[in-house]
# Entry
Amino acid sequence: MEDKILGLHHITAIAGGAKRNFDFYTRVLGLRLVKKTVNFDDPYTYHFYYGDKVGTPGTILTFFPWEGIGTGRRGTRQVTEIGYSVPENSLDFWLKRFEQNNITYNKTSEKFGEQYLTFLDPDGLKFELIVPKNTDSRTPWETDQVAADVATRGFHNVTITTNKLQPTADVLTEIFGYKLLEQHVNRYRFITDASENAAIVDVVEAQGEGIGHVAGGSVHHVAFRVKDDQVLMRFRDKIVEKGHHITEKIDRNYFYSLYFREPGGVLFELATDNPGFAIDESVEELGSGLKLPAQYETRREDISSKLPKLD
# Structure
């Protein structure tokens, strides 16, 4: 069987205050906190994972909430927008919800024949809620305020802004197996046929635009999904053959990863489906406990006492 990139796995961004981040994504946006852990390199900073009931790849948005971090700046060499799929006729609900919660948003618009609503999270991270052409059948996480008939289904797409299209497009097409689906002015839509959802990458070519600054309200990296670590390592060989510098395999407890920076400047990760988020908590208990990487377990009391309180 041919090795495939199965669409988006997760997207990791940077935030400011942990409690503000937690409150917005669980209460206002209605996502589930599926894992509460810490940054592998900075154990006094949380690493939050939000998603659906089980943390299905393609629904996972993760954050490093660094207290007091400065605000980033959108520009080239960045992921500049994150698109979530939502049901038909749900955008009016979200407009009212953003209004009630003082969330910055723009009026509904249309792109590639799909209605969408743009909004910013409390740190300025840019999102789009998109009604896809094809109905998204994924089962959402729902809350007492965000019912299933309006809730997000998971990722629809990400948007990369770059000074030069072709080097980024070559990685997507020649290594990842994406194909150019359509183009509008300087926005190019690439898609994989290996997945029905979280399958789209938009690349905006902005030749004269300045380079962005990654900080609060910025995407740190975007992770693409592969079945397991055997497929992962075969992709590593392919990426090396193309002349890109890439890490060795890294165990992130809930998936295995490789990282490399594509020529346009965005940090790409390849991440596996295995072993998943239920290896150290039951599905019912996901996100309820603080889970530490093994190397920090002996420091649990110290780390726990210094992490920001969420309630």
In short: The longest strand covers residues 154-162. The CA atoms of residues 82 and 306 lie 31 Å apart. The chain has one domain: 8-306. The chain is about 15% helix and 35% strand.
